[in-house]
Amino acid sequence: MIDFHCHLDLYKNPLAVFDEIKRRNVKVLAVTTSPRAYLKTSQYFNNTNSVNVALGFHPELVADRKNEIDLFMENISTCRYIGEIGIDGTSRNRYSYSVQKRFFHDVLSETEKYHGRIISIHSRCAVKDVLECIEKSLNKNVPIMHWFTGNINELQKALSLGCWFSINPQMCYSKVGRDIIMQIPLSKILPETDAPFTEKNGMLYMPWDTEVMEFLAAYYRKSVIEIEKQMESNLLEICNGIAF
Description:
Elements: E1 2-6, H1 14-24, E2 27-30, H2 35-45, E3 51-53, H3 59-62, H4 69-75, E4 81-86, H5 97-113, E5 118-122, H6 127-136, E6 142-146, H7 152-160, E7 164-167, H8 169-172, H9 175-181, E8 189-191, E9 199-200, E10 203-204, H10 211-220, H11 224-240
Parallel strand pairs: 1-2, 2-3, 4-5, 5-6, 6-7, 7-8
Antiparallel strand pairs: 9-10
């Protein structure tokens, strides 16, 4: 099992979830929302076979925590995974849009200096500008579009730029989400939960959830085991694409 975008540190009982992740041998990318959160989370979950902690700075927080930007940049050299970063264009975050975009551009430029990074990217209501920033980079990074909500033309643009996509159960349950998923090659997909921000019938999704695998298996008329093998192959390709 793989969960390529999970806020492990934000569960109410993260250490218990971590123990279960190890027991089930789930591969988890634990994204973080700020550089300080990254440093704290790394103390508990990094350097294991199951969990990789990503250096993150959620776009909703960047403008209000400018004093952490230098800390973020200082840690890029030692982090293979970056996320969650990006741009959020929803109405409540329009006031900080220019700051977000500049920071995102600067991060992509900085990661290129270290031969690129694997990056989990937030693009809600900002897909056009996110893709513009990716296109301007030197293409050493591996961009993973987290919970992509762009239109079909933007999806095709992202694919042309070499983007990957992490999809979660809530995408599988919405028509818009399904329409997007069905346009993405299976070889460019990774499963995610975005937990604990996602739930079903009042129950939080967990990193070992199988609903994305089951959806893909049904759509492609394959077994869940075949889909799991494809996802493992995708993950291996991503990891092999970055020298570190």
